[in-house]
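Hi team,

Filling in the usual template for the complex we talked about on Friday. All components are listed, including any nucleic acid strands or ligand strings, so the model treats them as one assembly.

SUBMITTER: L.P.
PURPOSE: interface mapping
COMPONENTS: two
RESIDUES: 649
SEQUENCES:
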Amino acid sequence: MNVIESHGLGKRYRRSWALRDCTVAVPGGQVVALVGPNGAGKTTLLSLAAGLAVPTAGQLAVLDGRPAGSPEALDRIAFVAQDAPLYKNLPARDMLRVARSLNRQWDQPRAEARLAELGIPLDRKVGRLSGGQQAQLALTIALARRPDLLVLDEPLAMLDPLARHEFMAAVMAAVAGDGISVVLSSHVLAELERVADYLIVLARGQVQVAGEVDALLAGHRLLTGPAAETTQIAERHPVVHCQPAGAQSHLLVRTGAPAAQAAQDWPGWQARPVGLEELVLAYLREPGAVTPPPLTLARAGADSKVRG
Amino acid sequence: MTTLTAVPPAAARRPVPWPRLAWVTWRQHRAALAAAAGLLAAVSLYLLIEGLLMRGTAASLGLGRCHLWAGSCAERAALFQDQYLGVAGLTTTLLQAMAGLIGVFLGAPLLGRELETGTFRFAWTQGCGRARWALAKMVPLAALVTGAGLAFSLLLSWYYQPFLAQRVTSPLDPQLFDLTGADFAAWTLTAFALGVFAGTLLRRVVPAMAASLAVWSGLALATVLYLRKHYLAPLVGHTLALPRHGALPWTLHRWWVGPDGRPMSASEIFAVSGRMKNAVGPRGTDADAARWLARHHYASWVSYQPASRFWPFQLIEGGWLLALALLLGAATIWLIRRRAA
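RESULT (copied from the run log):
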């Protein structure tokens, strides 16, 4: 079951393409993190999925084949846009009623309970709430719609570290409680590391990396060793990123399967596991490096095992 | 995933009901509506008080029994007009802009503010869908604006009625025509539709207000100066042959014709007028002058729209304004549907 699936998806604003030839399958039932540099097309992809924008080229389906933006898709996707746009001049209570009036499904007791739990006063105007409270209110409204898919575009951008933590805790509670799927874009890699099950890196409107976070982390190693021997390593494993440091080099290599990762495979090199943040940064620094799709990732692992 | 395969109950698959959507419109725009209603109420109160004062004066002067405005009736009507006509003229002049101001003030922010502040990203991703949402915003406000416009023009017609009865102004007079009948409502609705469309197109409230007010004023001016007089072919006749009672016709053009049957130039009129004054002498009356002119075959002609064409003209103007407003509404929905975030 894919919550977002696109083939050759493209979106052009006036003269420039924000997203081009994007083929992606976002699996459901988990927390999917969408990362990439500014202008990579994250917001465009999420806007298209939420039905805000219409594709210029290609196909896009959400929630198992429903056309994005169709009534049944709108009904089941809750989208929180960047900066959580809400009606700032309305009290929180009326903001809830506005959302209830614009939707077929609405869980008022749940919304009120959540706001009470967060200590957000119902009679305070949205514009007078703190940034963290506004984000929480937007999330409350999104969850009260009882969606199947929650799409969050840069939900953490305006929040301080504590508010970020609380926001993501609320998202994770909803995932655990309702089993909803979540797709979120963010620059806050440290926060994603704790929550994301699946990672998609977009670069220049194309999918650069896509895969389960655990598999991706297991399939990459950070190697430190003599710079002169870099080419020998590169012959055996794809090098995602190479950072020279004097006589030494720091390499991020894609090893494929955990079986190929015994320390003796790289004599003279020091190997250590990679974190999500380092992994993403390495790929962002090398927009040309691309992981094979998950299926071929497994096969590449088998190949290297044979060779090893 | 059970939540994905579960079929929502039948009630949940019906579209979001209109009254609930209309409540959102009311909640978001009630302050602007109150401001517009306050302005209308203040002007209405003024018209009501002035109208009652005028009627008191007219009754004390006994103007109700006058039909032909000659002799003593003309003198008493002149007293009445000295007291009230100046203010009434000023009032109707000032009110010319009101339809445009109210329409644009309510229309431009309706969708323009959502696009300017980014809240459309919230509204367009809710379950009701953006076209339904936009309709639920436009239609109730358009109906309110039209209804208020109709009520207001009824009051204004009542206020101005004494001057029509005294044949001071024609009901088709440009300063009065678009404040009375259905025309005021039609112009307000058009200004509203222009404001909504400009707000959607420009995505900014203040530029949209300025642009739609400019377009509306240009349209109103062009209508008064060039368009309205041609709705139906004007009638042409002798000035003296026009009816002496009933509502005054709308005079478009006046000219003199000499004995040779051709329209006279300004210099010819000046020369003839000099000869006439010499012939009649300083003690001559208007009637003497008219007799002298008729004897020498000078005649005054007029092209005009008779007052009986008031409602046909109202229908024609209201009709094309309504069509324009509907067209703008359809264009707005089209823009909303294809507008990408």
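MY TAKE: The longest strand of chain B covers residues 250-257. The radius of gyration of chain B is 27 Å.

Thanks, L.
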